[in-house]
Amino acid sequence: MLKLVDLQQAICEKYGATPSYCNDGQILMYADTTRGLLPLNGMRVKTEDGSSGWYIWSGGHFTKEGDFFKPMYCSNIMPYAPVAEKFLALPVGYRFVIAGSTEKAWLDAELV
């Protein structure tokens, strides 16, 4: 069985990205209210507060208003969105979308 770091490295290689690993103490923002919907989405934005910059949600659109996103340690995402873990080494500016067996990631210039 591959280690998480190996899976993350493989994803970065697949999409031509230099890995930017999250450490266990970094925070990501997760929309628990959309849990279980498809597709699973993620985007990594630049931050200045030491957080990972990741926003992860399910379903269609999201909002940063109110309590749509809740903070969570990167190391705690596994029970909520296990398929997202292998994408978390993608650097700032990347997005991913997962729907069943379909997975895609790309660099979004608007996030850089």
Structure description:
The chain has 112 residues and is mainly beta. It has one domain. Helix content is 10%, strand content 27%. It is built from one helix and six strands, in the order αββββββ. It has a six-stranded mixed sheet with strand order 4-1-3-2-5-6, with no helix packed on it. The longest helix has 11 residues. The radius of gyration is 13 Å and the shape is globular. It starts with a helix and ends in a 5-residue tail after the last strand. The mean pLDDT is 93.
Pick out its properties.
6 strands; 10% helix; 6-stranded mixed β-sheet; mainly beta
Give a quick precis of the structure.
The protein has one domain. 10% of the residues lie in helices and 27% in strands.
